[in-house]
Write a structure and sequence with these properties.
The structure holds two protein chains of two kinds. By secondary structure, chain A is mainly alpha-helical. Chain A is 77% helix and 0% strand. Chain A has a single domain, classed as MetI-like fold (Orthogonal Bundle), CATH 1.10.3720.10. In chain B, the strands form two sheets. A six-stranded mixed sheet of chain B has the order 5-6-7-3-8-9, sandwiched between helices. In chain B, strands 2-1-4 form a three-stranded antiparallel sheet, with helices on one face. The longest helix of chain B is centred in the C-terminal third of the chain and has 16 residues. Classes of the chains: A mainly alpha, B alpha/beta.
């Protein structure tokens, strides 16, 4: 119990004094996870919507695979990205290993299936509702996808937030491809793992509380900006 | 533009839903499709609209298929509301055509007035009442000034006042040159609106006649029974 109190105190002290390291680590966490979120959403939202409206031969298999990939183990993703980016790997010449870019790549791979899968489920319902009208109006594929994404934007926000939650709290992959290098690739989760290993529970807990607060803050901010839950069911 | 169906048959899972059916519809008029449930009225409309797959036979408009689709509109039995405001629902079909914003806004205002929803432009469409939704769906269908308008029981579940408002809009659209093809279960409505009647029974055109003729001297026993309120199967 003592450690938890000490942790809260440490967190409080770190935040109030705007500790330099804490700010740097927090900003890097945000930078990596938000970049990953933007890239993953740009891929997953149109893809999930396309899956909902398009009938093709291997559709069921694609959806099953996508759902399975939601549970992709981050450590394995980290390992594979590591091998691809390492000096001897196919993309070694780009020198990306142990940089924030590598961490973003790993997180994009982890959260894209999650966002795409939730998008697909939400869009399937909306498509069932709109189907007859959009067919009747002779819309093109592109117009259908755009209409569904726009009218389903509130549910898509939930999908994106789920992706962000997974990215910001993820440690396995970014530890491997980022290397937890101080002032370069250290983020909140890897720092917590390190401090716990060193036995500095107070600092670890402090960082942990900052992490939770950050997740809450981002959620509230996005909800406030997009005015969800204010106009009834949609 | 006129249309002719030749030996059109629709089969689903081995069951014949419609046809074989041949009919010609002129470029003008107000056709009402009558018939009991399951007679194939909705399928008939959807074939004309080009959204239902035909197993056999041909449905040909006097213009190219693409042109025909662009010049048609369809109002569903239960109106489909986009999860947007009333104004945005009206604007949607015009935006699809890439019309410029000022023109769209002008037409939306005009049509909101015609359907009596000028005060509700900013309201979310899914929260309108049943009558308002159907009027919005009709306005959204007419805003492109279609040459042909299909309606699938537009006044089912509506009260007298909403029904009258819809009928007024339909007659105005007809005067402006829109050809209307509509199904209904309301014989009174059929008498008020129709210029000609297509009576469907078991997926076949059982009788076809100008409205005046059909209502005074029906040629088939079933049509007579249907109008007298007997159950026709």
């Amino acid at each position: 119990m003592n450690e938890i109190w000490a942790g809260i105190l440490a967190a409080f002290r770190l935040i109030v004094t705007l500790d330099g390291d804490l700010v740097e680590i927090t900003l890097r966490s945000l930078q990596v996870s938000l970049s990953a979120l933007v890239i993953a959403s740009a891929i997953a939202l149109p893809f999930g919507t396309w899956l909902a409206i398009r009938r093709f031969r291997y559709r069921r298999a694609t959806i099953a695979t996508l759902n399975a990939l939601m549970g992709l183990p981050p450590v394995v993703v980290g390992l594979i990205v590591y091998l691809l980016l390492s000096r001897s790997g196919p993309f070694g010449v780009m020198g990306l290993l142990f940089t924030p870019t590598a961490m973003i790549i790993a997180q994009v791979i982890i959260i894209t299936p999650l966002i795409a899968s939730i998008t697909h489920q939400a869009m399937r319902e909306l498509w069932a509702e709109y189907h007859d009208l959009l067919i009747s109006l002779n819309t093109s594929k592109r117009q259908r996808i755009a209409t569904l994404i726009w009218d389903g934007r509130r549910t898509l926000l939930t999908a994106a937030l789920a992706g962000f939650g997974r990215a910001i709290g993820e440690v396995g992959a970014i530890m491997i491809v980022g290397g937890n290098i101080d002032h370069a690739t250290r983020v909140l989760t890897t720092a917590i793992a390190l401090e716990t290993g060193k036995g500095d529970f107070a600092l670890a807990l402090g960082l942990g509380f900052v992490l939770i607060a950050l997740a809450l803050l981002v959620n509230f901010a996005i909800h406030a900006l997009s005015r969800t839950e204010r106009e009834g069911t949609w | 533009m006129s249309v002719s169906l030749r030996d059109v048959t629709v089969r689903r899972r081995g069951k014949t839903i419609l046809g074989p059916l041949s009919i010609d519809l002129d470029a003008a008029g107000f056709s009402i499709v009558l018939g009991p449930n399951g007679a194939g009225k909705t399928t008939f409309l959807k074939i004309l609209h080009g959204v239902e797959r035909v197993t056999d036979g041909t449905a040909e408009w006097s213009v190219s298929a693409e042109e025909a689709r662009q010049a048609q509109a369809y109002v569903f039995q239960s109106p489909i509301m986009l999860r947007r405001s009333v104004g945005q629902n009206l604007a949607y079909p015009l935006q699809l055509l890439g019309m410029d914003k000022a023109d769209v806004a002008k037409r939306v205002l005009d049509w909101a007035g015609r359907i009596g929803l000028s005060d509700a432009l900013e309201r979310p469409a899914p929260r309108l009442s049943g009558g308002e939704r159907q009027k919005l769906a009709l306005g959204r269908a007419l805003i492109r000034s279609p040459k042909v308008l299909f309606l699938d029981e537009p006044c089912a579940n509506l009260d007298g006042r909403s029904t009258r408002e819809i009928e007024t809009l339909l007659l105005a659209a007809q005067r402006d040159g829109t050809r209307i093809i509509m199904t209904t279960h309301d014989l009174g409505q059929a008498r008020r609106l129709a210029s000609d009647i297509v009576f469907l029974l078991n997926g076949q055109v059982h009788e076809r006649a100008p409205a005046s003729e059909f209502f005074t001297t029906p040629k088939t026993v079933e049509a007579k029974a249907f109008m007298e309120g007997d159950i026709v199967e």
